[in-house]
Amino acid sequence: MHNNMSRAWTVREYGEPDTALRLEDVAAPAPGPGQIRVRVAATSCNFADVLLCRGEYQQKPPTPFTPGLELCGWVDDIGIGVDVALLADRVVGQPTLPHGGFADYALMKATDAYPVPEMIDDITAATLHLTYLTAWLGLHRRAALTAGKVVVVTAAAGGVGSAAVQIARAAGAFVIGIVSGAGKAATVDRLGADVVIDRSRVDVIEAVKSAAPGGADIVFESVGGGSYEQATKYIGFEGHIVLVGFASGIIPQSRLNHAFVKNYTLDGLHWSLYCTKRPDLVRAAQRDIFDMAAAGLIDPLITSRVGLGDVPTALHNLANGYTQGKTVITV
């Protein structure tokens, strides 16, 4: 494709992904000061992209915009003030909206780009940023994960959940994964969870307490609603409930007297805040994630690889809970 044009999935009016997104031919964006332009090789789908389409994400970019919050690609142009050595580097990172990753070209802050080691391919690299950083920062930074801790991961078959299972396993934790349905249970078993609980078949609170009589040290909670309420029942003494999202759409109202009586901590995680507040920590975490991937300690659960034309269908499936792990778009 000629350098001056870019195919881009564009949201002009908020709505469900399969109706809000339109594939348009647009001028390839020019990088501003401190920015790089990336020729996208692979980009992965996240629940945040669904929320962006609906206008429900914590960032609400003005329309029109292109979603896509996690990509791997090649730096092909740089803005003022950017080190020329970045040109032609292969990087992962979070694009700067409105020029997201569901396109031929995306823009990114140069400081948000992380060079990818040669032994990691584009498709794998495109999944090793947002979801794994969420898991790493939630578990290691917010909850002080160490070997032997009991870690419960709700929605353990999803993109961020499957990453959390692997990060916890790599740290030597005892991992309990909660899923809905036999297919997802089998997936999480293969990921290496010590115990898998199918919430469609058993009482979650009883099952966790049976597997971990002292309760959970850490709950990695991404569902909200009833899932959060259950976590407050099986959390252990001085445990941490790490809140990373509300995929159910139900934001729970915490009874703080309950945390007070049971001595547990609620840890919020908005991972991208670390990019501005502690970029050094994000770099260290990303290095560790790449090292673990290269060593085979983590292996992203990539269940679907599709072309750029299939973005709306991929996000529709994600929005409706039909997917496991990650869907990667190759460009």
Automatic annotation (TrEMBL):
Entry keyword annotation includes Lipid biosynthesis: no
Family annotation (Gene3D superfamilies): Medium-chain alcohol dehydrogenases, catalytic domain (3.90.180.10), NAD(P)-binding Rossmann-like Domain (3.40.50.720)
Family matches, as CDD domains: QOR1
Pfam families tied to this protein: ADH_N (PF08240), ADH_zinc_N (PF00107)
Molecular-function GO terms, alphabetical: oxidoreductase activity
Domain of life where this protein originates: Bacteria
Keywords: Plasmid
Keyword Phosphoprotein attached: no
All copies of domain Enoyl reductase (ER), residue ranges: 18-329
Entries under PANTHER family matching the protein: QUINONE OXIDOREDUCTASE-LIKE PROTEIN 2, SHORT-CHAIN DEHYDROGENASE/REDUCTASE
The protein, known as: Enoyl reductase (ER) domain-containing protein
Species this chain originates from: Rhodococcus sp. NS1
